[in-house]
């Protein structure tokens, strides 16, 4: 079975082995440098001593007379003070006249074969095998009064002596090396532990698996996802985000770039929408690359309270609008079917009663009256509004209001030929539908007698004007400034469950859609009682519209 060591142990052993090899190499280099320096220093020291001995007064005369005892008496005091391994005096015939370490070698030949240059008058430094061993030595000539060479002075240091000095220094260096190696062991262990902590105690294979899983997860998500670091540089983006924002560059070319170079973001994207705090944000409406999206943001925290970046997920706002539109249509269809079934039962019961009483003329008049009223509203709406969806909404609201006992009255001057390009059909239907629902609820709340709700829609004067007037209880002046904020409502609890009126959602959505379209809303009193909501949505000029299409 193959032994698998943890990553921390592998890294520790690698650092230790590398440190040992590095220390060994460094020690060898230092030893070589120190050894060369020691040979140079001792060689120069031997040369100085040999030169000084050769110039000693009386030495030349004693060498010339071959006065061996006199030479010994002259040189022995110097030998006692010198750190050299030996001092040797020889004559011109290369015979020993004095040897500090081997007196028995007197009159024997000098060994080494390096005397030729000395006899020629030069001072040399050499490493040779001598009578007592290999040594680093310097030889200097002894000159007489006529500057003729009459002898040789040799001062040397045995290589064994040099090796002892190197060994002593190496032992000292070895102690420091062991201490340094111990410190390296401690450092390596702390370093590997810190690295493992930065890796959340995971093995490299586990991290690689997590990276691949994250990559696969991001690519499998339907929502667009991208992440940035603390310097606001892009560190990850999935395929859905690139497709939703129409980014043609591959991911590897985007990583590391500042987010502003990759996406066109609103001016307040990094301030008001908040990278200034660590809190998460959800379901924020913003614009990325000229596309409205609903965005979520979650901070990346490697340490508690210290953010290292942010992850953003977003989806196209049109997808939400499409789903909302579909749900609204289903609700309208269900309401219409319910209302039509209820009215059909009433009509059928009325007709059945008239027929049973054999009042056939009254039955015919009843049928004609019902058909004429419904057909008149249908003809008016179809002729005045070109949007089929808006026609369906108004017919549904008309029937719904009539079922509740409220009459919805259309101003004869109503007209909508073209919906402004700054607002979508779904948003426009939401604005009108919420205003009508609020007006009907306010009318019912006021009690008897029930007054009609009036609707005026006009696209004249280069702006879309929508006015909804009711005869309800009105809106308090103190509530008007905050009426369009989320959660603020003038209704009592228990509103329309589907529209979210009890939560103050309706007018909040209306204000949001109108504001995005560059329009405005006004609230005024409807004398003698009630409220008038006026919505103004401008039509952009033809030139600006053409530029937008380009």
Topology:
Elements: H1 7-54, H2 59-65, H3 68-81, E1 86-91, E2 96-99, H4 116-119, E3 124-129, E4 134-143, E5 149-158, H5 159-198, H6 204-220, E6 224-229, E7 234-237, H7 239-244, H8 251-254, H9 259-262, E8 281-288, E9 291-303, E10 306-316, H10 317-356, H11 360-384, H12 388-403, E11 408-410, H13 425-446, E12 453-458, E13 463-469, H14 506-516, E14 520-525, E15 531-538, H15 542-549
Helix pairs in contact: 1-5, 10-11, 10-12, 11-12, 12-13, 13-14
What CATH calls the topology of the largest domain is: Beta-Lactamase
Mind summarizing the main beta sheet? 5 strands, antiparallel
Number of helices: 15
Distance between the terminal alpha carbons, to the nearest Å? Answer: 69 Å
Q: Find the CATH superfamily of the largest domain.
A: PAS domain
Q: Hey, roughly how much beta strand do the residues contain?
A: 15-25%
User: Structural class, from helix and strand content?
Assistant: alpha+beta
- What overall geometry do the principal axes of the alpha carbons give? rod-shaped
What does this structure look like?
It is a single chain. By secondary structure, this protein is an alpha+beta fold. It has four domains: 7-166, PAS domain (Beta-Lactamase); 224-268 and 278-316, PAS domain (Beta-Lactamase), CATH 3.30.450.20; 318-358; 373-491 and 501-538, Heat Shock Protein 90. 48% of the residues lie in helices and 20% in strands. It contains 15 helices and 15 strands. The chain has helices spanning 7-54, 59-65, 68-81, 116-119, 159-198, 204-220, 239-244, 251-254, 259-262, 317-356, 360-384, 388-403, 425-446, 506-516, 542-549; strands at 86-91, 96-99, 124-129, 134-143, 149-158, 224-229, 234-237, 281-288, 291-303, 306-316, 408-410, 453-458, 463-469, 520-525, 531-538. A five-stranded antiparallel sheet has the order 2-1-5-4-3. Strand 12 (453-458) and strand 13 (463-469) form a beta hairpin. Helix 10 (317-356) packs across helix 12 (388-403), helix 12 runs parallel beside helix 13 (425-446) and helix 13 (425-446) runs antiparallel to helix 14. The protein is rod-shaped, with a radius of gyration of 53 Å. Residues 493-503 and 545-550 have low confidence and may be disordered.
